């Protein structure tokens, strides 16, 4: 019983410490969406759908993406 209580307290403290910026300073949660995150776009990281469209376009000899990731990945940000 002591182990369970210690584990619950430890997990509670961990969640509280990990969420300090969100809970107390009301900072926005980091954006993990590839198509809308500017840091990922700077580093050239693309979503899987965009990479697949580019690969299919290369096979057909066409160009799909002009470097504007938000246009090519607009459908990736839509969640059902």
Q: What is the structure about, briefly put?
A:
This protein has 80 residues and is mainly α. The chain has helices spanning 2-18, 20-23, 38-42, 48-60, 69-72.
Question: How would you explain this protein's 3D organization?
Answer:
The protein is an all-alpha fold and 80 residues long. It has one domain. 54% of the residues lie in helices and 0% in strands. The chain is built from 5 helices and no strands. The protein has helices spanning 2-18, 20-23, 38-42, 48-60, 69-72. The longest helix is centred in the N-terminal third of the chain and has 17 residues, at 2-18. The chain is elongated. The termini are far apart. The model has no long low-confidence stretch (mean pLDDT 77).
| Element pattern in H and E | HHHHH
DSSP summary: helix tally: 5
Q: Averaging pLDDT over every residue, what do you get? A: 77
Which class of secondary structure composition applies to the elements? mainly alpha
**Residues in β-strands, percent:** under 5%
**pLDDT < 50 stretches:** none
Global geometry: elongated
Number of domains: 1
Gyration radius from CA atoms, angstroms: 20 Å
Distance between the termini: 42 Å
Helicity level, as a percent range?
Answer: 40-55%
Biggest sheet overview: none
Strand tally is: 0
């Amino acid at each position: 019983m002591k182990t369970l209580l210690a584990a619950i307290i430890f997990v509670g403290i961990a969640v509280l410490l990990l969420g300090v910026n969100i809970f107390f300073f009301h900072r926005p949660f980091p954006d993990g969406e590839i198509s809308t995150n500017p840091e990922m776009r700077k580093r050239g990281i693309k979503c899987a759908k965009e990479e697949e469209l580019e690969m299919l376009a290369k096979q057909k000899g066409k160009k799909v993406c002009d470097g504007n990731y938000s246009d090519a990945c607009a459908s990736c940000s839509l969640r059902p």
